[in-house]
Fold each of these.
Amino acid sequence: MARQLPVAPEPNRLLKVWRRVLERRLRTRLRAKVALEIHDNTHTMLTFQRQRSMWRLRLHHMFLAAPDDVVQALAGFVRNGDPDASVMLDRYIERNRAYIRRLSPAQMRKRIRLEPEGQHHDLERIFARLNERYFDSGIDAAITYGPAPRVRGPRKSIKMGSYSADSKVIRIHPALDQPLVPRYFVEWIVFHEMLHHVYRTRRGDDGRRCIHPPEMMEHEKRFHDYSRAQAWERENLDLLLRARVTPA
Ligand SMILES: [Zn+2]
């Protein structure tokens, strides 16, 4: 006869128990009925609404193990939007960031509308050619024109490109999509962002974040039109700053 193995409590059952415990703790403090839903969201950690005599709360599972002062803050925040409670909850969420599920780059990319085509410069083509020429087609990233940031009045500076290591998406400022902007200049900006994919931001000896490590800046000089692109930027920055771009 087979020996019976000890049975571990089912995770779902445990979750139910924990949820009930937290429900009770909140009920005591709110002096009202509480219906609690626990989720695994990645952005919104806490929402609530009043339904007649009952509070409905939707909370991230990090709150299941919250200490008393945090549960107290939850009650205070729900009851009357207490600003001190709000600060305390923010801190708790920050401290427990490790429990927030991280989306994979592919999942994050699905949430972003990619628009690489442009009127004058096709970013996907530029990216593919650079990838082949300089990186053995080894760079696995997506590219798009970024949404134009709303800027009032004349711009003082312009961020021509950016790279998000989380989603692996390169964004290029839509002001570059003009006939006056030469292809090699757009290529240079894209090349620079591709290098961000290769050289991750790290902390320097002084503890500060080093976005452009020296070896990256050295690598950048291998771009075929490096000095030409730099010269064009010096002479034409005004043109880019004045570019009127309608936010998408
Ligand atoms: Zn950079």
Note: Residues 192, 196, 211-212 surround zinc ion (CB under 6 Å).
Amino acid sequence: MADPHDDDTAYSARILPGETCFAAPASLSLLEAALLEGIRLPSSCRNGTCRACISKLHAGTVRYRIEWPGLSPDEKDDGFILPCVACPTSDVTFEPVGMP
Ligand code: FES
């Protein structure tokens, strides 16, 4: 199986509200890709534990770099993601919602 970190597929990401768009390579987290394009998103730990970056995924899919990102199963089912450790596996649309 291919190492997902070597995947250079480029997806596009859209941030709501405001429709900001940026290129989101599969090998980078959504937060890393946004920062590379000069887009600031809420963040702190950048390792999936503090939840400062929690966002609602409105469209698309992600995979996680870590086995247990700081989301409950219910939050995952409800479409919440942690962009600091979530890498896109398709074009995505998400909305930072702050710590619930
Ligand atoms: S920045 Fe801490 S969980 Fe994303």
Note: The longest strand covers residues 10-15.
